[in-house]
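Case study 2.
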Amino acid sequence: MLDMTEELNVERYKNLGKNLYQFMLKHGYTSNPAPKVILNNSEQESDVLCYTGYFDPNRDAIILFTRGRLVKDVLRTLAHELIHYKQRVDGIIDKSGYTSDKITEDKNLVKLEAEAYLKGNFAFREWTETLQKKLSNKNQKQQLNESAASDYFESLPDVRTLGDGNYDGELAGCNFTYNGKHYKSPIGIRCSFPVKTTLQITGNEVKRL
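Prediction:
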């Protein structure tokens, strides 16, 4: 099981994620406007086969799984998915998504992933080296981590704010999408991959039907 004691430092992800996005946009690695980015800090069942992140072309959203991972590792995943986002904007990926999520089954996916791994990792390396030059002293590092950031990452409200009732939507990890809006479902109400489902809310209790 992955570490459940780590607290999610959303502000740090906001600052660094925005900085990485702007760098990649400036150097032509990704596209404008910025996609939605959702942080998923839910527990996963495996530390080897767990999800690290994915791009959802239907919502133009990037989902990043953060539990038990170094911030740098999560940001490297962001760089990878920002390449997929550009593929979507450029029309290489359409809103219907992929025919398969396995490179052993889809030759076209091999090309998409090869570009994302090559350009994403290269862009991330360029960005970190640029930061090393800029952040040559403690004061500059502190400024980066504490600077105000725009609403680049989406902060999800609790699903119970919907009130009592049955809600048909899509569950991915612990994220529940209902009427185009995203909510956090409680630990235990989760799915490793996106599925359509119904959540029943009664007071403070949430059940998956």
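The chain has two domains: 10-154, 159-208.
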